Inverse folding.
């Protein structure tokens, strides 16, 4: 089989075929850097990261471009409010985003910034005017004439036929009822940032930024364009209208949209108090790996409801996988091989691939690896794992982790890197005080640790593995890695 993906454009799951053999060119709409990233944003970014990793595992060379929206209505407004330049305002949030993304295991795509492509954007508008797809208004703004693009609505499946020609909307974000000529370029307003350009002073609209930068990096037609489901309309619809009018060619072949994350069953919103940035969760003591695991536990097109219970379960799942790997790498196994384990490892790898090829069914891929761990643990308890079984089992784990990226026990180090850089929570408050306890590893003295290890040993000899596991998890949270071997219990600082 080969990869099959849902395409929002056709509303069907389709075989993925790249335009160029062996190569995938993909563009994902990045963050608008006016605030810290929340876990909903990260659901989408992690879904795209998974897709990128799976393309690579499937043998493709991947060009993955993401923009940083560093100029839009909200940014201009906030920068003017704070009396700072757009660059000064956005730099901190861009850095915070990149730090957070690294903390949660997102591989860095090629990054493009809107403010670094303004002359090209102005030239793009000039061409659209020349071709009759755009017009200038008296104040020096430019709008896209959607009546000239009859396919307008083809992505969001809306019929805009009855629309009044010439009705305009000049805000970057608007709802489905506002199918009007949208702003490509906005004339300067007093007190707000603007740029000189070949079409006069002003600033680009958000939609224009992505059209120009994606085609600049990936060519006029590329394989896949991604974002959260809210971007289907108007953002992606407008990108298609601009790009296809400009080139006369198809823009992107696949449109990949991640479903919105819910929190405790509701839409995440500041007023409901269920709005979490990544930093909020980490400062509550949750590990990046648990958050990443939870956010991938439901396929990207299904509803994922974030709960704290789910987060705790995710932590247990990750811990189980890590312990299993530790068991394989530190155990003493007799020479030889068992056919059952060999088959299990190979079949598990195949099942994971089949699940991911089925429109990235992450839940089934996780189920496959857990079934392997369950069977192998049971076999190991009964002495049924031999030396030559270890490499194929480890290979299956590695294949899993190339995609899910949760097995390395480096949460403490990752968190430390982020908060050493800026000890702030998701609202910009200084949290240096509380942080030391939550994030910094190595807070326990050796004597403290030895005492806990003794408690663990006592619990294990009473066959109270629940208590023993709880102590171990608690030590792991504090940056202490505990290894249980045939010769006893060892520990080390991460
Ligand atoms: P923004 O920074 O608002 O431009 O959003 C960055 C990305 O996060 C976009 O692809 C959005 O579609 C996505 N996004 C925003 N909120 C959520 C959410 N609650 N769940 C999933 N994705 C989201
Ligand atoms: Zn975009």
């Amino acid at each position: 089989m080969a990869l099959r993906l849902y395409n929002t454009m056709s509303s069907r799951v389709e075989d993925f075929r790249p335009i160029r053999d062996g190569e995938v060119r993909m563009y994902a709409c990045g963050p608008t850097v006016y605030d810290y990233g929340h876990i909903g944003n990260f659901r989408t970014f992690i879904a795209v990261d998974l897709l990128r990793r799976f393309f690579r595992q499937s043998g493709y060379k991947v060009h993955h471009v993401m923009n940083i929206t560093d100029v839009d209505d909200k940014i201009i407004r906030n920068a003017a409010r704070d009396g700072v330049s757009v660059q000064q305002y956005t730099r901190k949030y861009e850095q915070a985003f990149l730090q957070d993304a690294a903390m949660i295991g997102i591989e860095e795509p090629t990054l493009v910034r809107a403010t670094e492509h303004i002359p090209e954007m102005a030239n793009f508008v000039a061409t659209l005017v020349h071709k009759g797809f755009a017009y200038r208004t008296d104040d020096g703004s430019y709008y896209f004439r959607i009546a000239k693009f009859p396919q307008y609505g083809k992505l969001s499946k809306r019929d805009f036929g009855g629309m009044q020609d010439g009705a305009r909307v000049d805000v970057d974000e608007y709802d489905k009822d506002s199918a009007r000529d949208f702003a490509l370029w906005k004339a300067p307003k007093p007190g707000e940032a603007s740029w000189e350009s070949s079409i006069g002073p002003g600033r680009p609209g958000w939609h224009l930024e992505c059209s120009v930068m994606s085609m600049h990096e990936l060519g006029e037609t590329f394989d896949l364009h991604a974002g959260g489901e809210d971007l289907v309309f108007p953002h992606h619809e407008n990108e298609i209208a601009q790009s296809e009018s400009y080139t006369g060619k198809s823009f992107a072949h696949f449109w990949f949209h991640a479903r919105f994350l819910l929190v405790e069953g509701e839409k995440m919103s500041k007023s409901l108090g269920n709005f979490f940035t990544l930093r909020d969760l980490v400062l509550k003591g949750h590990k990046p790996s648990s958050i990443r695991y939870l956010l991938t536990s439901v396929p990207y097109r299904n509803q994922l409801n974030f709960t704290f219970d789910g987060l705790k379960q995710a932590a247990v799942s990750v811990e189980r996988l890590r312990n299993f790997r530790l068991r394989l790498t530190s155990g003493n196994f007799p020479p030889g091989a068992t056919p059952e384990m060999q088959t299990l490892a190979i079949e598990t790898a195949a099942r994971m691939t089949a699940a991911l090829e089925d429109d990235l069914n992450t839940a089934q891929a996780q189920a496959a690896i857990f079934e392997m761990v369950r069977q192998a643990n049971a076999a190991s308890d009964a002495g049924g794992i031999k030396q030559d079984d270890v490499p194929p089992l480890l290979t299956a784990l590695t294949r899993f982790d190339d995609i899910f990226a949760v097995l390395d026990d480096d949460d403490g180090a990752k968190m430390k890197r982020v908060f050493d850089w800026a000890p702030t929570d998701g609202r910009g408050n200084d949290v240096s005080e509380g942080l030391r306890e939550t994030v910094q590893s190595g807070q326990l003295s050796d004597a403290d640790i030895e005492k806990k290890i003794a408690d663990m040993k006592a619990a294990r000899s009473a066959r109270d593995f629940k208590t023993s596991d709880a102590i171990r998890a608690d030590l792991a949270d504090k940056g202490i890695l505990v290894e249980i071997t045939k010769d006893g219990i060892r520990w080390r600082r991460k």
Q: What stands out?
A: Residues 29, 210, 235 surround zinc ion (ligand 2) (CB under 6 Å). The mean pLDDT is 91.
